[in-house]
Amino acid sequence: MPSLRSRALSAALIAAGRRRRFASAEAVRTRVAESARRPASHLPPRSLGRAAEISRTFVGAWPVYNVSPRDAEPTVHVLYLHGGCYINELVRPHWTMVRTLVTRARAQVIVPAYILAPRGTADRTVPAAADLLSGLIASGGEGGTVLVGDSAGAGLALAAAQRLRDRTGVQPSRIVLISPWLDVTMSHPDQAAIEAGDPMLARAGLREAGRLYAGTLAADDPLVSPLRGSFAGLAPLTVFSGTRDVLATDSTELVRRARAEGVEVDFHEAAGLPHVYPLLPVPEGRAARERIVRLIQEAAEL
């Protein structure tokens, strides 16, 4: 059973109308149009600069942040791909997770502010992410490299890992997927029942965001929906999912199929928890973050 704080947070999300922003395709198009007129900032909060060293470079058109421990050499490297349904920028919970990985796991964390849909589409975004991952692995030295993504960022992470596998066979030490969005078609038959209790997401808006991200590709193309791709040869996976998340079906399908194709999978399913609960200020989120820190520390020891 979810903690009292988790239940209260879900109730607050419902009361705030959080799901309305995904209630329809029109709501998503309106949000995208507003973002085009007044782009949101992807800058890290000032408080992060007091806890870590931060620098920024550009890889193509992408601003890419390098966040490292202040007084120690990093022992492991992380590529963190943020969520936001491919239409929203980095927000404070993402940077809070980055801070945890830097200060607790002593990791160097690379955080790209990738171009959002509809300007940024899968045919360009996935290869660019795969190139970033390849470069980080190649420059890793003795430390390991862990690929982490949440929500849409987890879908991008899996697609990038699949592309890198197909291109060179190289993989990171581990892939950590937090409430991954892996199939933008939103066609799983169990999603309708789960949607009724989801305090954050709705299928109609997600389909539209997925359509914008797909661009000229079909929604079921593996570049767009990596659940439709193959899993053999991927790095070990760790997957976090809450059952009060319309995207939970993506996690359960991934776990089933990846294990069938011989991939090691560490699956954490939290009953009654919402989307991206490991990023939220609840006891279950803190426990998930501790698990991720330990996994990254273990990668440093490989």
Overall description:
- With 302 residues, this protein is α/β, with parallel strands linked by helices.
- It has a single domain, classed as Alpha/Beta hydrolase fold, catalytic domain (Rossmann fold), CATH 3.40.50.
- Helix content is 41%, strand content 17%.
- The protein contains 10 helices and 8 strands.
- Strands 1-2-4-3-5-6-7-8 form an 8-stranded mixed beta sheet, sandwiched between helices.
- Helix 4 links the parallel strand 3 and strand 4 (107-112).
- The longest helix is centred in the C-terminal third of the chain and has 18 residues, at 283-300.
- The chain is globular.
What structural keywords apply?
302 residues, alpha/beta, Rossmann fold, eight-stranded mixed sheet, 10 helices, globular
Short description:
The chain has 302 residues and is of the alpha/beta class. The chain contains ten helices and eight strands.
Summarize the topology.
Blueprint: H1 4-15, H2 25-37, H3 46-51, E1 52-59, E2 62-69, E3 76-81, H4 92-103, E4 107-112, H5 122-138, E5 145-150, H6 152-168, E6 174-178, H7 191-195, H8 203-214, E7 237-242, H9 248-260, E8 265-270, H10 283-300
Parallel strand pairs: 3-4, 3-5, 5-6, 6-7, 7-8
Antiparallel strand pairs: 1-2, 2-4
What oligomeric state best describes the polypeptide chains here? Answer: single chain
- Overall structural class, as computed from helix and strand content, comes to alpha/beta
CATH class category label: Alpha Beta
Q: Averaging pLDDT over every residue, what do you get?
A: 95
Can you say what the CATH homologous superfamily is?
A: Alpha/Beta hydrolase fold, catalytic domain
Radius of gyration: 18 Å
The CATH level-2 architecture is identified as: 3-Layer(aba) Sandwich
The major pleated sheet works out as: 8 strands, mixed
Physical arrangement of strands within the biggest beta sheet: 1-2-4-3-5-6-7-8
The CATH topology label is Rossmann fold
Identify the overall geometry.
Answer: globular
